[in-house]
Structure formats: C-alpha cells, structure tokens
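Q: Give me the 3D complex with NAP.
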Amino acid sequence: MATATEFPRQMYIDGQWRDAIGGGTLAVINPADETTIAEVAFGGRADAEAAIDAAAKAFPAWKATSAYDRAKILKRTAELMRERADTIARALTMEQGKPLAEAKGETLHAADTFEWFAEEGKRAYGRIIPPANMMKRHHAIKHPVGVVGTITPWNFPVTLPSRKIAPALAAGCTVVSRPADQTPLCFLLMFECLIDAGLPPGVANVVMGDAKSIADAYFARAEVRKISFTGSTAVGKELIRRSADGVKRLSLELGGHAPLIVFPDADVAQVAQAAVIGKFRNNGQVCIAPSRFYVHEAISKEFTEIAVDLARKLKLGNGLEEGVQVGPMFESKALDKTTRLIEDAKSHGAKILTGGAKSTRFDRGYFYEPTVIREVNGSMKIMTEEPFAPVMPILDFSKLEEILSAANATPYGLAAYVFTNDLTIATRMAEGLEAGIIGINDPVPATPQCPFGGMKESGMGRELGIEGLDAYYETKFVSIGLRA
Ligand code: NAP
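A: Here is the predicted complex, encoded as structure tokens.
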C-alpha cells in the first residue's frame, strides 16, 4: 500500500519542485475513510505568476523544436505512464474514490492521449491556396497559440489534464497547469512521467492553489494567450465574461445532462446492463454520464426490473478492495447534493425503486446507495440541473418526435445515447439530437482520436481528435507577392 511519503507534494515551476511561495499546504482526503493521505503545497496568484514567467521564457525554444523531437518526449511520457499505471491508479483511487480498475483504465486512456497527440503533432499541415492573382502565392500556416493556462476538475484528474497538456505541447505551446484541490497526487505522478521523459524546464509547469487566484493570474498576464478549462457551466460562463478584456482564447468543456434513449427493438437485458454500467461508473460523477433514461413504453417495465436488480447487486466499497464496483462519492458536499436532489424528487412524486439514501453500511466515507427512481417529471431538479450523482431516473416514451424534443429540452448538449438496431431511427436520432457526442449502442464513446465536447451550454471547442490539436494553433495567412 502506498504510503504518504511516496507522493510528490510540491508544485513544479521552471524545472524545479517548489513549495508554495507563502508556505501554504492543503490536506488531500481519502473519500473512502476520510483520512488525510498527504499534505500538498497550496499557493495562489504569486505561484501562478512565477509559472507563467517560466512558461513564457521557455516558449520560443519549445516552439522552435521540431514536432518530431516534441513527439519523442510525449511518446516517452506515454510509455512511462503505462509502466507506472498501477501506482498512478492507486493514488487516483485513494484521493478520488473510483474503483482501481476504473482508475487504471483512466490512466491508460491518458497515456494513449499523449501518444496520439505525439503523432498528430507531426501532421499539423497548413494549406497552399490557389491565388486569383498569379503574381501572388497564398499559404495558411499553423502557429502555436503561446502560453496556455489550464484548470481541471477532480472527476477525471489524469485524463482531463492530459487532453490539454498533450495537444498544447505537441503544438509547440508551453503550459501552466492547475490540478483540482481534491486530486493533486495522481496528477503529480502523471506529471513526473513528463519530467522523466525529458521535458525541458519551463515547458510545462504545475501550480496548486486557490483556483480563482490562479485564474486571476491567467487573465492578468498578456503572455497567457489561451485558457483551457474543464468544469461546471457556471464557472465556464464566468471565464467567458472575464476573457473579454484580454481577448483570451478559451476552450471550455462544461456540464452535461445526457439522455439515454432505448427503442423497443433493442435487446433489453443488454441495454439495461450497459445503462447501469454507464450510470454508476464513477458514481455518476462523469460529464457524459447518462442522467435521464427514456425507455419505450413497450419495454420499460422489463428494462426497469433488470436495471433495479443490477443496481442492487453493485458492490459498494473502498475502491482499493477487490471486486468493488462503486466507490465513495468524491466529497461530503457531493453526498449532500445527492440527498437534496432525491428529497426534491420525492417531494414532487418520484418513487424510489432502490437506494435513495446515504449508505448505512459504512462508518466513514461518502457512500451513497446506487439509486433508481421512477414517476419522474420535469418539475424535479434532477431533470433540470446537472445531477452528477448515482441516480438513474427512468421515464417512458412512445413516439420518436416526442422523445427528440424531450431529449433536447435542456440548456446542455454534451452527450446523448441511443439504443436501437433500426438504421433509420439511429440516423434520425444522430441528426436530431443536440449533443456534441452521440453514442449509438455505445455507452462509453470517448477515445483520443475522436472529437469530444459540447453544444449549447456544455462548452466551446473540442478536445481530442484533430480538433483537439487545432485548438492550440492560430492559423496564419501568408500572402507572397512575386517579382514581375
Ligand atoms: P467547478 O466547480 O466548475 O470546478 C472545476 C474546476 O474549476 C475546479 O478545479 C475548481 O477549483 C475550479 N474553479 C472553481 N471556481 C473557479 C473560478 N471562479 N475560476 C476558475 N476556476 C475555478 O466544477 P466541479 O463541480 O468541481 O466539476 C464538475 C463539473 O465539471 C461538472 O459540471 C462536469 O460536467 C464538468 N466536467 C465537464 C467535462 C467535459 O469534458 N465537458 C469533463 C469533466 C467534468 P477547486 O479545485 O478549488 O474546486
């Protein structure tokens, strides 16, 4: 078992591990037993300014490094992450709560992300555009945006930063990265892989501390040309407002409220199983987690019975223990919010089929019983607010047109899921759903080579795929006049 002394605990600025300038520290808590795992450095604006200085100083040389040499470091990072996946995953489970197998899967997905962007950075082609005037030549070329500041949450503390750091570095940008307060340890272990892969000083830096103060530094400093944020829609909107003065580029991966729609031709048992896995993975604390389950009335009784049975059988416990399928929620606030959502749903007539309360099986830790509810209606907060909770609300539907408008009736547009073997229905749904990510018979659609991001209030821009690399480039138009 990892001991506290094994974890890195400092920030990493200009090639040096450093304490916070003000000497502050923050305790990292294990949500399974509420013990302190480690104390890490915790600073704020001054630390972020030092990291921005380092990233700005490192930018010209990194930009001038060939994509092939940058790729060597990113590919080596991926290899080291795979070698160290057990250690990183263990830290992830201890501070975030998800079961070890999920934590390892997340780590390997992040390693794949580093490898994919290492390769894709070599293919950042520009364009030669035919001129109308033959005494000119037109080129569109790619230019790295500059220093990038990142802020990421606790729910995927290895994967989400990798989706920003890997493409930014591949594109020739330098980075200042802030992990979430609750989950710095697995992030730092991932970051050590970058350092050990040969990252030059200042090219990527880590600051830990008050999020708002670090964002203040990102906004105040002209050298920071772009902010890449993953988190709630509320904070995303604040960043959009704040970006106006410096015209900062933004990539925003925000909240979601994904519908999962099951048509009557689908294999009910198979879909119920996929739905339960998709819902209770990471306790529903997943931006693309299905959170509204619309099941055709012809199969909804059978679907509900199977889903309730499967949810009851899920093994809840400390994610480090063998066989545990659902860990604790990440902090007590999340548990309280889930309790409030369920109380609100009950007060509006919801029927609890299983779960519906904090688990009484544990003396300590933030455990909530996997919950399935029916008799759900639009007046309940669980249908309008992003739940981020282990709760599965099941609703019936009868017509395609009616389900499409119900599915699209939130301000969110991140993910949507459809289960059917009817090609026409699948096509109509894929074209009609207002979501950036659509899984047709696929409950877990994220993969490094495909674009990931939201429509409507779920975000701006895309991560992963070629779009995720392009987000770290400016396109420059070069027009060359020729001598007669
Ligand atoms: P949050 O409150 O927005 O926090 C996200 C991150 O932003 C945290 O690191 C937080 O710092 C920081 N933050 C908080 N206030 C800030 C401010 N005023 N300025 C700058 N940074 C600030 O979100 P959360 O509830 O912790 O995280 C879950 C949310 O993330 C959900 O809405 C989820 O859907 C979304 N998410 C989206 C995606 C996606 O790809 N679209 C992926 C994962 C999660 P602290 O560490 O101090 O809290």
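A quick observation: The longest helix spans residues 100-120.
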